[in-house]
Amino acid sequence: MACAAVLIAVIAGAPFLLNEGILRLATECLLLLTMAQMWNLLAGYAGLVSLGHQVFIAFGAYALFLTSGWLEVTPIWVLPVAPLVAAAVAAIIAFPLFRLRDAYFSIAMWVFAEIIGAFTMKSQAVGGTSGVPLATSKLIDFDWFEPTMFWLAGGLTLITIAALYKMMTSSFGLGLMSVRDNDLAAMSVGVDVRHNRFIAFVLSAAGCGLAGALSFMGNLFIAPLAAFDVNWSVYMMFIVIIGGIGTLEGPILGVIIFFGLRELMTGPLGLSGGWYLVGLGIIAVVVMIVAPRGIWPVLRDRLGVRLLDVHRAAPRPAAATMLPGASERVTG
Amino acid sequence: MIWVETLINGALLGGLYGLLGIGLALVFGVMRVVNIAHGEFMVLSAFCAVLLSNLFPQVSPLLMLIPVIALSFAVGWLYQAAIVNRVVTSPDPLSPLLLTFGVSVILRNVMVEIFGADVRSLQVGELSRASLEIAGLNIGIMPLLTLVLAALLFMALQLVLRHTEFGRIVRATADRRDIVRLSGVKPDRVYNYVMGLSLALGAIGGVLLAVRSSFTPFSGAERLLIAFEVVVLGGLGSFWGALLGGIALGMAQLIGLKIDPNAGLLYAHLLFFIMLLIRPSGLVSSRV
């Protein structure tokens, strides 16, 4: 609680202390962290790797841009449309996609994103290949735009992490993790595998839709090549893989490494964005080979730190107290 | 008549697509790994062919296939030995997927940085424009040769896997990785050869596709998606299925382009997605 209060205070106060460039970078970090948490919800907890999650980012962002334009209201008030549209798309597409497992699911998601991207580029109603500017940008108060974006991103990140923590310690989260670890055993104790996966998929899409809408709202412009870029999935995946898949702390560590490396390589070292992705990719591949669960679980076990741990140990003490009683009965 | 020509050209393009798919199918069949970097390796082989033909302009670019195939085999062998073998036995089926995806991102960006993001193509001169006229239909020599080559390669691969010692070892390893060890087979080493073979087949597809249409370092993703769609549409059961899947996709793409000239791969992707909806049972199969 105290920790949460401190975080809220930090996020509320940060725009008054940081300059615009750093604030913008912080907003980007927070949004990517939210997306990574959402990708992790699907990959780390539900065992479904999506290589087409950019489609939900794009749906959320386009939904925001178009509704805000039609209704002629400040984009912030139509933000709820973004997660709703992304969730609705996910709920529909889940029916064909959930017939597929593992790599099939991953690549079919990617093909789905490609199809939607191609249709978007063809459709003049949504701006075609050249994209659309935010029609209602004149309604935005630009004195407070960067701070507001930061607060929205910060609030979204905190709520996402708190909600995921709550969820993973609830029976739904336990069911989800049991499916990931052993779906046969989970089914035998009555966990509804399909239902759990479906909920995780829809929630993950909704979160990515909202974060994507905020991200493009910050740019005041959206174009299909940026919105449907497979690099969104690359970023989410690398952050989760490097930090620690299936943990809540992992993506936080991953985002720090992701942006730390980017600022280092493209700043002082003066390398291009391509070499940065090469560096990140090498780190991810090395982590996958050396520590397949990511860096955070290794650190946690070395240092013995517990932050947002939803890990549970088998109830061993109970079995130990059973035995003497049982043997007493035998001897008695 | 123009539609018949489109269908025939689609089928010829399908032979090429079958070639893209077969390497992916081979690796998946033997080690249950979808090599996401397959498309990037194909583009890499196309870059190698372009570099070689710039170095030796007097030699026909198609002859460059021979060194490129050899190089791709070596690269595949090393790639498997150094990277993929480390996760291939992982209890988590997602590990190889994520790892090869990481490798694809590395390769793509290394190619962007080294070769630049410009559009390239492999020029074969007269051959790419030459065509036959049969019963009023115009049929390109190059696509026809590609389809024949694809069919020959499919047949050769089938024969090797069915009737040779190497083929028996590969099939046995695919079935029971643990048991073949009892007969003195090292599964990891078999995997190395299979990945080498897969990338060599991919190199043929990659170079021939570079002759047909231009490419950039970013073309790997669409080549992978086509390869994957070919494999899934054809069913993983047979190589001939992959050829059929390729032909279906090639026809869908060319018909789509006829209706809508800037459709790209949209109609091929749509065909794949519709097939997923109506015939998902054809997606599951286990034999090499």
Automatic annotation (TrEMBL), chain B:
<feature type="transmembrane region" description="Helical">
    <location>
        <begin position="6"/>
        <end position="30"/>
    </location>
</feature>
<comment type="similarity">
    <text>Belongs to the binding-protein-dependent transport system permease family. LivHM subfamily.</text>
</comment>
<feature type="transmembrane region" description="Helical">
    <location>
        <begin position="231"/>
        <end position="252"/>
    </location>
</feature>
<feature type="transmembrane region" description="Helical">
    <location>
        <begin position="264"/>
        <end position="282"/>
    </location>
</feature>
<protein>
    <submittedName>
        <fullName>Branched-chain amino acid ABC transporter permease</fullName>
    </submittedName>
</protein>
<feature type="transmembrane region" description="Helical">
    <location>
        <begin position="37"/>
        <end position="56"/>
    </location>
</feature>
<dbReference type="Pfam" id="PF02653">
    <property type="entry name" value="BPD_transp_2"/>
</dbReference>
<keyword id="KW-0029">Amino-acid transport</keyword>
<keyword id="KW-1133">Transmembrane helix</keyword>
<feature type="transmembrane region" description="Helical">
    <location>
        <begin position="62"/>
        <end position="84"/>
    </location>
</feature>
<keyword id="KW-0812">Transmembrane</keyword>
<feature type="transmembrane region" description="Helical">
    <location>
        <begin position="137"/>
        <end position="161"/>
    </location>
</feature>
<keyword id="KW-0813">Transport</keyword>
<keyword id="KW-0472">Membrane</keyword>
<dbReference type="InterPro" id="IPR052157">
    <property type="entry name" value="BCAA_transport_permease"/>
</dbReference>
<keyword id="KW-1003">Cell membrane</keyword>
<feature type="transmembrane region" description="Helical">
    <location>
        <begin position="190"/>
        <end position="211"/>
    </location>
</feature>
<dbReference type="InterPro" id="IPR001851">
    <property type="entry name" value="ABC_transp_permease"/>
</dbReference>
